[in-house]
């Protein structure tokens, strides 16, 4: 078993990611510079990165799972899910125009997915799909705008975990749908970029059912002692391949039975 990275190196890498976010610049992959980095090391880096954001005034309001669908795994060359934290500063209103400069986005890509908003907390291990559905207040359509502080998206799983699961900002639609009112595995999403179709997928693209992905995340974070809290928003993963976003672009999406949301980008 590999020796854990020393605390000073963990802090150094977390500081590098925080500084890259603030300066809107990229870094060479952590895995290229530190070949022995493990997922546990990467998670410790992620927590240091998060602490820097919290010290700057951000507040955790949820969690996210990413790289859940085969389409996204094939696109990024990362073949297991990643996980990270959502803060209040990452949330933007439905229909908003996001300034790339002000939001810190560097090389954003849009994902269409389903958000779960919890009425009660969950903590793994042993969380099931049914537990997730019972704990969920409502589900809603969501755009996650992923971003990477790693140059040219040249990431391995350890890079993206360390980089807070490549999270940028997210948009949750206004709809509040009972998660048991429809088959979330069967819902169909369509997405447009500047009025042109750019993606489509089913709920089943996310580990067979979006609530399965959320259960996986609850159990994975539970192993680190991290719970889901009542009121948190949990992003369950993209239903289709990621689509690059740039200033001047506008994205819309709809999910059958859930409704839709939109987001635009400016310099």
Topology:
Blueprint: H1 7-23, H2 30-33, H3 39-55, E1 60-66, H4 70-76, E2 82-87, E3 91-92, E4 97-99, H5 100-103, E5 109-118, H6 129-135, E6 136-146, H7 157-162, E7 167-172, E8 188-193, E9 196-202, H8 210-222, E10 233-238, E11 243-244, E12 250-255, E13 259-266
Helix pairs in contact: 1-3, 6-8
Describe the protein.
The protein is of the alpha+beta class and 267 residues long. It has one domain (59-266): Alpha-Beta Complex (Fumarylacetoacetate hydrolase, domain 2), CATH 3.90.850.10. 28% of the residues lie in helices and 30% in strands. It has 8 helices and 13 strands. It has helices spanning 7-23, 30-33, 39-55, 70-76, 100-103, 129-135, 157-162, 210-222, and strands spanning 60-66, 82-87, 91-92, 97-99, 109-118, 136-146, 167-172, 188-193, 196-202, 233-238, 243-244, 250-255, 259-266. Strands 1, 2, 3, 5, 6, 7, 10 and 11 form an 8-stranded mixed beta sheet that branches. Helix 6 crosses helix 8. The chain is globular, with a radius of gyration of 17 Å. The relative contact order is 0.22.
């Amino acid at each position: 078993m590999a020796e854990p990275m020393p605390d000073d190196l963990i802090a150094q890498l977390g500081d590098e990611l925080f500084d890259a976010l603030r300066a809107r610049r990229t870094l060479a992959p952590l895995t290229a510079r530190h070949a022995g980095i493990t997922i546990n090391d990467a998670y410790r880096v992620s927590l240091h990165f998060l602490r820097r954001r919290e010290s700057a005034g951000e507040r955790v309001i949820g969690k996210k799972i990413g790289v859940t669908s085969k389409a996204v795994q094939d696109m990024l060359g990362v073949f297991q899910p990643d996980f990270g934290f959502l803060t209040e500063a990452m949330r933007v209103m439905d229909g908003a125009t996001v300034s790339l400069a002000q939001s810190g986005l560097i090389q954003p890509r849009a994902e269409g997915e389903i958000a779960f908003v919890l009425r009660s907390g969950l903590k793994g291990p042993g969380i099931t799909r049914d537990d997730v559905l019972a704990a969920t207040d409502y589900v809603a359509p969501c755009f996650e705008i992923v971003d990477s502080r790693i140059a040219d998206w040249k990431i391995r799983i350890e890079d993206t975990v360390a980089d807070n699961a490549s999270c940028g900002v997210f948009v949750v639609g206004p709809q509040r749908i009972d998660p048991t009112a429809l088959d979330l595995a069967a819902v169909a999403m369509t997405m447009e970029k500047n009025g042109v179709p750019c993606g489509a997928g089913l709920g089943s693209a996310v580990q067979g059912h979006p609530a399965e992905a959320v259960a996986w995340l609850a159990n994975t974070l539970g192993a680190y002692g991290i719970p889901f809290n009542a009121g948190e928003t949990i992003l369950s993963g993209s239903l289709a391949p990621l689509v690059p976003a740039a200033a001047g672009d506008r994205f819309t999406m709809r999910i059958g039975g859930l409704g839709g949301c939109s987001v635009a980008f400016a310099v």
